[in-house]
Amino acid sequence: MKKIITTSGAPAPIGPYSQAVLSGNTLYTSGQIALDPNTGTLVLDDIITETRQVMTNLKAVLEAADMTFENVIKSSIFISNMDDFSQINEVYGSFFDETNAPARETVQVARLPKNVNVEIGMIAVK
Prior knowledge:
The chain is an alpha+beta fold. 21% of the residues lie in helices and 27% in strands. It has 2 helices and 6 strands, in the order E-E-E-H-E-H-E-E.
């Protein structure tokens, strides 16, 4: 059975999807972009600030499912410019313990929703 996870700490969906779905002990998050959940505006000052907002949004979704980044087993990172990888990786890495970091893929794509520079989705297990 699946349970829809919703929190006001992350942006409301902008389409026909949920912030996350819990199936058994496994949480599947939708990709998060740098939308500020309080204002609904994009946080695109620079790639570091943008990535931090994405990770903050994901943290809120994880917490709504009673999880933390320690529960994350897989991350998918989509970026519009591979030249931003090192800065994105630095921010992303600050949310994890390197010895217990999840599996991950990072893919450069032609375009992301609302023309953002980074989108991240995760799978976590209790």
